[in-house]
Amino acid sequence: MSMSPQDSQIVLRDNIRLKAQEQGFDICRITNIDALESAGNNDIETGLYEFLQAHHHGDMDWLARDPARRAYPKNLWQDVRSIIVLGVNYAPAHNPLEDKDKTDKGLISVYAQRRDYHDVIKKRLRPLARWLAESSACEVKLFVDTAPVMEKPLAAAAGLGWQGKHTNLVSPDYGSWLFLGVIFAACDLPADEAGHNQCGSCRACLDVCPTNAFTAPYKLDARKCISYLTIEHKGAIDRALRPAIGNYIYGCDDCLAVCPWNKFARTAHNTRLAMREDLHLPDLLFLITLDDAAFRTYFTATPIKRVGRVRFMRNVLIAIGNMADDVDEAKKAEACSAVKKCLSDEAALVRGMAVWALAQLDKSSAITLARPALADERDAHVLEEWQAVLA
Q1: What is the mean pLDDT of residues 13-33?
Q2: pTM assigned to the model
Q3: Is 254 assigned a catalytic role?
Q4: Per-residue pLDDT at 3 exceeds 80
Q5: Of 285, 284, 235, 231, nearest to 385 (Cα)?
Q6: How confident is the model at residue 53 (pLDDT cuts 50, 70, 90)?
Q7: Given 145, 173, 328, 345, which residue is catalytic?
Q8: Nearest residue to 13 via CA among 233, 252, 187
Q9: What is the SS3 string spanning 164-221?
Q10: Among 74, 73, 44, which Cα is nearest to 149's?
Q11: d(C-alpha 233, C-alpha 182), whole Å
Q12: Model confidence at 43, in pLDDT bands (50, 70, 90)?
């Protein structure tokens, strides 16, 4: 006796989950177009347009390209019927908030202290998608963060968790620590129950933000977010925001790490995504010595490499300036010496941040150097930094 179409879909769904587990995914859930349309897609689209119209996306111009296509899966691929959302746990062994007082060390977001997850997730998605296409004659397309897919709302719709007040996904099993990948499928699959918001009255993620980047629960102004500023933003960072960045040099985990749901997260043990020990609390005065070749070698295969040396050095110099009140005089003198070498860097962005860092470490030394520097410097941004020293 042959199975009904509904039973066949259930069997296929269960087999997808088994194959996903074989490929190293910790969780696999499914939503479909019918479920999305029943729930209403307006909230996703409205939220995206409000975010863009308020210019909260900053330099991330790619977010504003064809937002209607981004907001609804069928606008991205007309044939999609089901969306398979997969997660990989990357929970750290300890709370990153415990490291913030080590001000002579650089803080790198947990996700970036390892091999670039885009590469790892894609290598797992491809065989799963290939198996699905071959075994079911179902056409598929796969996405990992770099395509115009809104993974977090789709993950919530598929039941992996819900979008917390910090706008990131919160999982009842993995807290805030999930890498996401998505497969669009042109076949009908049973939808899992959507995630239910369980944030309640908690506002820990909103209150912990060093730069007050949340304008309201579930509303982020990326232009103030440390992750945006240290990764996506290309130019000088607003002088008023620099002290709040502290010793973060790539990303920020504060709103993720403070979430109480993390107490249910199990430490990740995936060897392909194992954390690199040398990327946990690297010495700032070592990092500032890296030239372009050394930077690319040191951060090979990590997401940090993508921002390039110049932006990364901007971040490191801000962190060095911020450690001024927390280190002894010998360390401060060593830092001043390292920063002064950056005053002649080829990149104007690095020179400008070196001026600011020196002024935090040793204002009198910065004042002494300011007048000859004003006569020699030609870059408008760097001149502004020197003028601020004398103001």
Answers
A1: 95
A2: 0.94
A3: no
A4: no
A5: 235
A6: confident
A7: 145
A8: 187
A9: CCCCCEEECCCECCEEEEEEEECCCCCCCCCCCCCCCCCCHHHHHCCCCCEEECCEEC
A10: 73
A11: 26
A12: low
